[in-house]
Batch of 4 targets.
Target 1
Amino acid sequence: MSASSETQVSTASVAEDLEKRASELLQMAHEAGATGAEVYGYGGTSLSAKVEKGDLGQVQADEGSTLGLRVLIDGRLGFASTNQMRPEALRAAAVDAVAIAKLSPPDEANVLPEPDEVDDSHRMRHHLDPALAGIDVAQVVARAQALSQTAVDHDARVSVDQASFSVVSGASVVVSSRGIRQSDEDAALTMSLMGLAVDGAETGGFDYRGAVVRNSSQVEAELQRIAREVARACIGNLGATAGKTYKGPVAFAPAAFASSFLSPLLGSISAIAVQRGRSALADKIGEKIAPGLTLIDDPTDPKVAGARAFDREGLPARKIHLVDDGVLRTFIHNTYSAAVGKTKSTGHAQGGPRSVPGLGCHAIRIESSLADGLADEAEMLAALGTGLYIQRFSGSVDAASGDFSGTAKSARWVENGVVVRSVNEVMLSGNAFKLLNGSTQLTRATERVGGSSQIPWALVDGVSVTAG
């Protein structure tokens, strides 16, 4: 049997054993006094390696399982988790969770969801790449070294601060006293690269890229892409000169647009944020909040890191339009926020086995809804004409108000639609909601950011730019 086949069988075995232990823990919770209970479990293996400044650094291999138990007693919530699968450890977790519930205040929104049908075709086990799941420690180390060396091979002036490469494969399960019983298996590979350029006495600014892949056939292409983009950005950061202070149009690369605009947008479509008075979009359902923008959460796309068939509570994770041609269509809910709002969960419970379910999106895609809009990065720069183009943003973003302020990284000055030079770090500020509802143009072309978000380039007017 090949290593890949062994790993594939092992992943299925992990799911089977995890489901068995979760069922045992569920029964123990009821024996301890719970009137309702839910167990979420995750188990598997992870291999990772880092190359730091050209030398092999940390190499790590982990294997194990964790079960998280949520219990309810008349609206009182208790939670405990354990990474020990022995019966006595499971029973101790059940007793602890029940004891915590008895000491907690009641809340009528503390309920467990009713089962809902999950589309079997969206389970990640059907898309599991055995070759990816079968990567061993030696291959992970070799790939981390190759990622670092490939960046240097593009230009000898590139100095790699850190190159990391990791692969995780495992299984997740959800079982509850309401009849939910879900399980799945998955494998994903993550790589990242951070570096700068050194040319004699001059040192340029850092740049960073990362990617998540679920198919082994994509690994080499993504490795080459990341190395090439980091090398190009780092070399481009050399020779930076002073920027200019102005208020007007700024061009954002996908990563920069995601950092400054996507964060407050997603934060404000959370039903919990709305219910707690922390959303700028609380009363905007049905209103146009971002002309020309469509925002989709699509966990059914197996290519992205956030793909899944069910959420943290075992409810189906479905494709949903959150903003459609600029109009806000819905907020996202888990079971708790749905109970507060007297509605149904949208399948957006998030989290792992070490905490109660949270709330968040799975796999975001932003699209331009304008057929005659900007095509790509080149058209965006042409439309900008003269001004600032930023590739990364580092700063603070207030998800409740939408105010952002921070530093433009890997910034370029554009004249007549052409990048003419690198600029020193300049400060950007503005309000994401006002700018999105103003003059913002998106490209039809998009780029994967962080493995789970597909983001366009954006030309945003009205941004405040302050040069040092």
Target 2
Amino acid sequence: MSNQGSAVVLTALWSMQTFGQFANAMAACAWLAFVTNAAEKAALTSSARVRRLIPDIARLTLRFAALPGVGLLAVLGLCLVINPQPMATLYVAAASWSAMAGFLMTVSGLHRLSGRPELDAVAFGAVTIVNVTVTAATWRLGLSPTIYLLLQLAGMTVVTGLSLAALPRIWIVGPLSRRRLTVIFGRNASLLGLSDLMDVAAISAVFLVLMLVNKTEQSGPLFLALMVASLLVATMLYLLKLYQPAAAARLRGARGHDGRVRAYRLLGIAVGGGAACAVLISAYGVLHVSGVVALASSTLALCVLLAIYFGLAMAVMYGTFLLENTDSRILSSTSAAATVGALASAGFAAALVPAVGAAGGLCALVLSSAVKAAVLRVLLGRRHPELRITSTL
């Protein structure tokens, strides 16, 4: 919530061009939070079935999650020493902040697993204080986006370190896990995390295209629009994480059939909604080419497209969540569908953003969500042909 509030304040403090550069860097690097956070999902899914191995799983989770952040902090330190182009430092700082945010989410997830959920609230309460303090300093001192991010990153690193120290010592320091457990955990973390990672990469692709076509001044409005959706999506993700251990235990085996049926129907709704949007977007594009109407990234257009995208994204997200907790074999299908969706987002963005700007970016996200749902539905139908009959009853 504090990030959404500070973004609104920053639009008043910085010029539209400066805020656009900041928004572009943050959105383009947002996927890194899900690289470091992927291990948490695997830990929560595994904990319901192998409770005696929880200390080993916790150590693996921390090692997997810490590696990207540590590497990026080293690169950031090098950037600050050699003083490269300011834009490069801004993007590395944004990447480091995202990676550290993902690591803090992972540590907080382990606190919930250890039976101390209050530490989760304390950690993010402290991050909120850091955010408000740095935003206030930016208002008073006129800090640049790079300095703003460096101060945010420093505060979050301290909070993460304290949160890490509050975990059970055996979860942090201990013998190396058995090689077989490491391989299995690594595979599950990669596949479970890839779906969320590709969803965010689809958004990052839109901002990269905006940068490549020199439309970063439109990154600000798009970033603010997506911040509203991200707040709701983040809330849903958090609730699903709380429910994940129970869902993983409940949806395994024969009981997974009901979860697959619900997911298949949800994906069908998303495909239908995306197809309808594709028809409308195509018709509007024809009218634009014919000179009947002019396409523009108006506030109304962004709001309508944002609402459509949010609805499709939530349906696909919940359908994917149900499938991921039925059996591990489906993870290859959810990962493949998410990857295709991200590639589709980049392709649609390359086609639409140069002409329409931010509205074209949201159109790309709407269409790529439908593509992801369609691919996942086909793969699920091939793996479980009975769903084609059951879902129609």
Target 3
Amino acid sequence: MDLDGNSVPLNLSTAKSVKQKPASPIENGIRSWLGLLPTGVHALVPPEVHKAALGAPKRWVVYTPMVLLPSGSFEQLWWQELAIQIPQHIDSLWQSILAQISKREGKGKLTHLAINAGIPLNKHEDENENVLRTPSGLLMLCGNFGPALDPGLQPTERDLEEAFWVRTKQNGIVQIWAPRYTMFSRGNIKEKSRILDFHSKGKHNRSNTQVGTETAIDLYAGIGYFVFSYVKMGMKRVLGWEINPWSVEGLRRGALANGWTAKVIRPEETLSLENENVVIFVEDNLRASERLLLVEQGAALKISHVNCGLLPSSAASWETALSALSGDGWLHLHENVGVKDIAKRKEEIGEVLHGLLTRKQSRRFLTMDEVDLVKTFAPGVWHCVFDVFITDPVA
């Protein structure tokens, strides 16, 4: 209306158009599924489900050929009731969602769908620590992820061949794992990148590191998170210890996918070094000192990096890490630390390491270097990596 109260026609050319946000592939998948349900089934579908955006996950991650949804997805009561009322139609819902995400991602056909869950610190059946970091909380919605196997038992060759394996690429490095039996930490990418560039700008060359002639050690190798970064950095060789056979197989497959050679050594086997990029011992790293002593009798390893990547604390491996270094070198110690306690923890680590050196009557000395904040582990708690430089005056 004008000032006199007369109506004024709306000038559509000047009206601002409101852009509608396009529906997500998951919403489209739900709507497509609803449209294909038999007429009689619609009466059983709660009204909330017809409002496809309500309660639908907004994010996902593709690990070819799997789609992983965030924790808490589809946990609303109406979804749970629907799964009970029309179970024969639920698989087609997951297939519809996969089809829509495949179309959006353009990475080929995606065949498996799961909901993420945190890695439990303890096994479900008892209070023993989940030392293998088995992803027992993973909720598998669509696709064959492999049989339910006891993670404490050695998988057979057939188990390994028939398992479902996925892959991703970070920093140009392929990583492979079996999601039913092995965890994957996406948030470690920042630390992987830092390791790759550790010697590239000369900042950390106080030890006159000759990367192409030296060895790195990873006492908690996993599927090769940091092992592969050391290889790509240019290290002559990387030795790793890992007790989860599924992780070892993922590491072996990942090494081959990146064009590197890998040798797997089991507890009863001895090692003869050749020209492998990666050597992995399928055993507790408590044997690392013994193994290294035998190896060094026939080879000058020149170990200059030791990675201790266990959370919430890698303290149990620090003495082994110290004894592994050949002359000057770096320790990378992973810890979960409250944000207000990082400086204090750095000082405490220095005191512990100094005590270990003193007890061994070692002439080596240490410098507490950077603390890298990798990612938040919980509110107010950071996954930190404490870099420690060890100097050997007689090396």
Target 4
Amino acid sequence: MSEKILEKKVRKTLIVLLFFGWALGNLDRYLMNYAVVYIGKDLSLSATETGLILSSFFLGYALMQLPGGLLADKFGAKRILLIAVILWSIFTGLTAVAWTLSVMVVIRFLFGIGEGGFQPSASKIISTSFPVNERSKAMSIMLTSSGIMAMLVPIISAVLLVTIGWRAFFVIAGSLGVMIAFLYWKYVPKDEIAKESVKGPQVKAILGILFKKPLMWSLVVSYFTIYAVNWGLNSWMPKYLSDVRGLDLVSIGWLQMIPGAIQIIAMLVFGYLIDKLDLKVNKFIGAICALVLAGFLFLMFNAESIALFITYQSIVTLLLTFVMLLLPSFVLKRIPSDYAGTAMGMANTGGQLAGFVTPTLIGFMVDSFNGSYNAAMWLLVVFSVICVGAILTISPKGQGNKEAEHE
């Protein structure tokens, strides 16, 4: 399908639009990690209940990954992208009116369902619109918005949550989503390429192909373990720094800009390098990164000073970023574009299930050990070690992707 790759100008427009869409989704996700400090007080929540709110989004998000990919492959990425943004905008706005734990959990779950179709659809667009040797770079540019949000949200939250409150902010975020949806409707090209895939393998055939690929199951485990570390850290970092290190929200915001800035630079650099290096080489680099990650997680949680803590956190961020950028490259470069959306949805299901399990599990551990985060630290270390083995089982060889053979 490389002969149908879009013109360079159109590709640039697409990646800009995907960048802003992914930025908005991450704005809401990261802000919730800070907003729960206030939500927990307003709703009188325990650590376990707070973790449940953080996890409910990921359950809906995980459940929608595979269906979202199938729908993108079947009906076109633009349609699913539009539906995803519209739905998540609605439920982001509705977060502002939640008055009990149960209502909040349901709304966040439905928000996850809404956003669940975004990444598979975006991956489908990248797979069908960009040359093979540009796909990791394109993905890294889109994902860079996540790093920018990780850097900006601490400051945004410190200002807005104190001034206008968490309810007003979610109304604003929902309104921004409506604007993004309009831009997608107007400027994302019609799904000419995607329509061809409707004539290709049907749902059962696509799933049958993917379920039989050892590559896909290795990716599912790799995604689960690395994202367990990622979302375990992101969801609990503000509360950990507040409870254990005694920092106020403003101080946390400024300090978290350091690893956030490092992540932005790392995403752009690593996306370029992954495209330049052979996937076999990248695989071993990824395994080494996951192994070293385990060591630096231990050092970070046991750091004697805040300065040392942030230094180790920055290194952890670098290692996490490489692995998280590497994993989708196996889908984008080794899975035929006809069902790249479904493949990305299947792989990312593992990552988002981790996002569901880990925050709640950490909250339970903190409650069980009287506010201690030591058990949570060891949980993340173990996930990192398991990730090493999962990455090493990935076969980087092309599996039916003729485009990859001519890379």
